[in-house]
Write a structure and sequence with these properties.
The chain is of the alpha+beta class. The strands form 7 sheets. Strands 17-18-16-15-21-22-23 form a 7-stranded mixed beta sheet. The protein has a 6-stranded mixed beta sheet with strand order 3-2-1-5-14-13, with helices on both faces. α13 packs across α14. The longest helix has 27 residues. It is globular.
């Protein structure tokens, strides 16, 4: 076989997110060569429930991966490695022998397991979960989703105990399928989002598994975020391509933003928004309202941790304006519409469709509009929706700064929302610090590519990656602190009206 030079070789990053599957080809300079995206379907069988079809997920990944390779006019032999990043807490269960899913995937946004979470809290498990996993008890995480699946599929518990079933987050499902059932594994960042992983011992917590009657044999092997996970089935791409990275999407974005030093912080504006601060090689002490999570672990190196604030509904609120209310045709037009008016007219929108995540963790909050008058227009609702994203980010950043005692001087932004000029400017205004948007906004995919490439020597070190980082734009605050404080105080009043709206059943 002819050995190809680096300049002739590329990294394929696949990003399986909540609303779409995407594939990206990167060159050695960190440049984006080609990409492909396909939307995937969300199902809502009951109020507050969110499902996806695992088979649709894998089909969409294969379509976009092949399309990205073809669009770049590459052969499969030119792909040095594949990296996989994924929506994190979404849970898939399948047959070990056949690889067939035995239930729909339960999406991270799904709230069906709220009663199970209530039961765990009543059993006094809150402190144990917090201390061992860095998380809070919430339907967001995978543990209660797994328990629900075992309770609701035919002979679920018995089949799990007998080793007939596999469970995992979406990365595990993709790896298992792409390797034709050869490898059942996950990485440490995804494992840390299950509410079953001990972030101190860095292994599945046998006590939590036992308490929830989840057998160890059901769970994937936990590995570092990069290294050799296996090769793709040669029938898929014509050759076996090494898979050298699995990583949760927010950890990938943190790495892609080159947040390699403690105190560096990024926010990803996606379906939800996820603010992460890199905290070094030791997990931070539990902080009310925040999560302690794994950033990444490179093969043979120390684990890097992060503090995280997870905001459930941000970009999906824009999607609701389009699909639910029908008042916009696409997300791109919202910036100009918001700028067509000077303010929201005192109207605030709290998009708590799935409860509130960080720093409130209120599973019974619901969406609320306040301050409506007869003069409230379509434009006011659209602007208030964009502003609600920025306010929720400020909620989280305030807690991170207070707990870390680090004065954050800049926010690195990425994701779809980072392309919205109004949102980015308002974010800088309400935070009172600059917001930087990188030249490559798909930093989740970029971080995945970086980790996959480092595993095969495509890049030499992290400093090389930092040196490649380029900015697209930088937004400086334009309003006074007094004006920002006034706007934010009214947001806090609106937030209180959304809290604890739906009473526990």
């Amino acid at each position: 076989m002819v050995q190809l030079e680096h300049s002739q070789r590329y990294i394929l990053a696949v990003d399986q997110s909540t609303t779409s599957s995407s594939a990206f080809i990167f060159d050695r300079g960190g440049g984006l060569v080609s990409s492909a995206t396909q939307e995937i379907t969300q199902f809502h069988p009951e109020a507050g429930w969110v499902d996806q079809d695992p088979e649709e997920i894998i089909r969409s990944i294969m379509i976009v991966a092949r399309e990205a390779i073809a669009s770049a006019k590459l052969t499969s032999e030119q792909v040095s490695a594949i990296g996989i990043t994924n929506q994190r807490e979404t849970t898939v269960i399948w047959e070990r022998a056949t690889g067939r899913p035995v239930a729909p995937a339960i999406v991270w946004q799904c709230r069906r397991t709220a009663p199970l979470c209530e039961a765990l809290t009543k059993q006094g498990m809150e402190t144990t979960v917090r201390e061992r996993t860095g998380l809070v008890i919430d339907p967001y995480f995978s543990a209660t989703k797994i328990r629900w699946l075992l309770d609701n599929i035919s002979n679920g518990q018995k089949r799990a105990d007998n080793g007939e079933l596999c469970v995992g987050t979406v990365d595990s499902w993709l790896l298992y399928t792409l390797t034709n059932g050869e490898v059942h594994a996950t990485d440490i960042s995804n494992a840390s989002r299950t509410m079953l992983f001990n972030i101190h011992t860095q292994e599945w917590d046998s006590g939590l598994l036992t308490h929830m009657s989840i057998p160890m044999c059901l769970m994937p092997e936990v590995r570092p975020s990069n290294g050799f996970f296996g090769e793709t089935d040669p029938e898929l791409f014509g050759v076996g391509i090494p898979i050298t990275c699995l990583i949760g999407d927010q950890s990938a974005a943190l790495f892609g933003q080159a947040c390699f030093q403690p105190g560096m912080i990024k926010n990803t504006y996606g379906t939800g928004s996820f603010l992460l601060m890199q905290t070094g090689d030791q997990p931070s002490q539990p902080t009310p309202g925040l999560l302690t999570t794994v950033g990444w672990q490179r093969e043979g190196r120390q684990t890097q941790y992060a503090q995280e604030g997870s905001i459930f509904i941000t970009g999906s609120a824009i999607q609701w304006l389009r699909d639910g209310l029908g008042i916009i045709e696409n997300a791109a037009e919202t910036s100009d519409i918001a700028l067509s008016i000077p303010d929201t007219g005192g109207m605030y929108f709290v998009p708590a469709f799935a409860g509130l995540g960080a720093p409130h963790w209120d599973m019974y909050a619901r969406g609320t509009m306040v301050g409506l008058t007869s003069g409230t227009s379509r434009a006011h609702i659209i602007r208030a929706t964009l502003e609600s994203i920025a306010y929720q980010v400020k909620d989280v950043l305030n807690v991170i700064q207070a707990s870390s005692q680090i004065d954050v001087t800049v926010l690195r932004a990425d994701g779809g929302g980072a392309a919205n000029p109004f949102l980015m400017q308002f974010q800088a205004d309400i935070l009172g610090i600059p917001v930087e948007v990188p030249a490559i906004s798909e930093t989740t995919a970029l971080g995945t590519a970086y980790l996959a490439g480092l595993a095969v020597g495509f890049w030499d070190n992290q400093q090389e990656l930092s040196d490649q980082r380029l900015l697209n734009s930088r937004y400086e605050p334009r309003i006074s602190t007094a004006e920002s404080d006034k706007l934010y105080s009214s947001w806090l009043r609106a937030m209180e009206r959304a809290r604890n709206w739906e009473l526990p059943t």
